[in-house]
Amino acid sequence: MKSLSTTILASLLFFSTLQAAEISTPGRIVSVTVYPGSAKVLRQARVKLPAGSSNILVTGLPLNMDENTLRVSGQGDSPAVLGSVSLRRDIHAEVVQEQEQQLRQQIEQQQQLRQQIMDHKQQQLQQLDFIRAMGMGGQGDKPSSYLQLPPDQWQQAWRLLQESSSDARKQIREADEQSRQVDKRIKQLQAQLNQIATNQRSTRSALLQVKTAEDTVFELQLTYQVNGARWAPVYDAYLDTESNQLQIRSLAQISQRTGEDWEDVQITLSTLRPKASTSLPPLDSWVIDFYTPPEPIAARASGIKSMRMEARMADAPMAEMGMQREQAALVSTDYAAEYQLPTSISLESGSDKRRFALSSQDYSASIELASVPRKDPRVMLTGKITHASAAPLLAGNLSLYRDGNFVGNTRLSETQSGEEIRLSFGEDDKVKINFHPDPDRKKQSGLLFGKRKVVERNYLVSILNNHQQEKTITLYDTLPVAADEQIKIETRGEKPDATDVDEKKGVVSWTRRLPAGQEVTLRYGYSVAYPEDRKIQGL
Questions:
Q1: Alpha-carbon dihedral angle through residues 96, 102, 105, 106, given to the nearest 10 degrees
Q2: Residues 6+ apart with CB under 8 A from 396
Q3: Stretch 312-326: mean pLDDT, rounded?
Q4: Distances 137 to 126, 144, 239 between C-alpha atoms, Å
Q5: Contacts with 26 (C-beta within 8 Å, 6 or more apart), sequence order
Q6: What is the pLDDT of residue 18?
Q7: 378 CB neighbour count, 10 Å cutoff
């Protein structure tokens, strides 16, 4: 009886669906919020509904849309009730995007051109073989024709053979170069085709059930998230060493391969929280400890098995957390900002990356010299500023310009308001650094005092300023850190001005004034004492 009731109910629903008026519309994309790796699309449609039940079919939705993010809303001139919403996949075997057709035609043309080039190359190779045969006296039993000439014409005939041979070789080389260029072009076109051709024959449609008491005009809105779109910040930094002014220009680089074209839409860019790297050579904590023999193989295998089990146990909750992070990324928070482009733009699916200006900020920079002489004797010119804008600077590629000249590229880390930014603008080749052991101080290594072993190392750093102005330089290094209280470490020579730089244990720095045209020296070192019956690792 339950089964019969279910069957009757399904039949009634099917019958009511057939009786409802069906209206098909693709709607129009009016705005897009772009995130790194995805986008939120707002699509609108205006339809006329008769009184009663209607089925609105919104067509042309992208295949790779996240169906869980689809949200539908609307209103009409008279009260309307929005019922169920369902998605279906539409197959268009006969439909191919115009861009895809053009790419396939271009690939075919390039392939034909390549064949013509190779045919021409083959002709030149055959001609070269013939010329070589002529120069060797002929082909087979047939003597060369130039040997049948009078001796006074041999030189002229030989010169003609040489010129023909040189011309053939030249054309072969040109054919090889043309072939390489054509192959490169085919590869580029094929890559573009692979990016857009995957889902071009399939789309989705959303079926919406709407009921209204009288004829009305219904304003429909659909929002959904789709993969294949991204934006990334890029920056240009201009440092004026005369005025100590630093300008940072922010740009947005946008691309999309969502399967749907954005035509004359309003674009909003939402920021996230990427990671970063530094410009100077990295320095980590230097820890020394007593030597510990490695574990037996069986014990290590047991530990590996244990870690694998822990990893498997963590798989499920991590997947759930990932869904939460994706949902939260759609919300503007204190750690993110939104940029709305001033004008509407059009961006076809699969098109090249496009850049748009976002903002420009001027800073008063503190300029100093910095070096890590133990790792790299070069002196880098750095500009230090404090980010004052309420909107954060996201992690992104940054091009560096010093006094109007391009000096290199780096990576800008995510920076919140009030945080410090330190940028390296290349090498200052007028400041020279030499780093070597200190010859004026006794160097001890592995000496025994009582029942303790002592290792002492001393260094000398010389800095020559060839500028006509005084400069300030900061030198960085790492001193060892003991992991056991039986290991005693003492700093020798000139004490560092700062310790545990960037909250890294053992990383130290010295700041020194460099008079114009003069040399400044820095002497420092350390000693390590530990029981003579123990071994040290890391030193």
A1: -150
A2: 232, 233, 234, 235, 274, 411, 412
A3: 28
A4: 17, 5, 71
A5: 45, 58, 59, 60
A6: 45
A7: 18
Beta-bridged to residue 473, according to DSSP, are: 369, 512
Give the pLDDT mean for 231-241: 91
- 138's torsion region: left (phi>0), alpha (psi -120 to 50) or beta? left
Q: Is the pLDDT of residue 502 over 50?
A: yes
pLDDT tops 90 at residue 160: no
Residues 6+ apart with CB under 8 A from 536: 288, 289, 290, 291, 455, 487, 528, 530
Q: Is 136 left (phi over 0), alpha (psi -120 to 50) or beta?
A: alpha
Place of tokens 């024709």: 145
Number of neighbours of residue 405 by Cβ within 10 angstroms: 9
Q: How far is CA 358 from CA 136, 351, 406, 410, in A?
A: 71, 21, 21, 19
Residues in Cβ contact with 174 at an 8 Å cutoff, skipping those fewer than 6 apart: none
In angstroms, the Cα distances linking 524 to 413, 456, 463, 482, 538 are 32, 11, 14, 18, 20
258 neighbors 349 (Cβ within 8 angstroms)? yes
Which is nearest to 211 in space by CA: 80, 18, 17, 46? 80
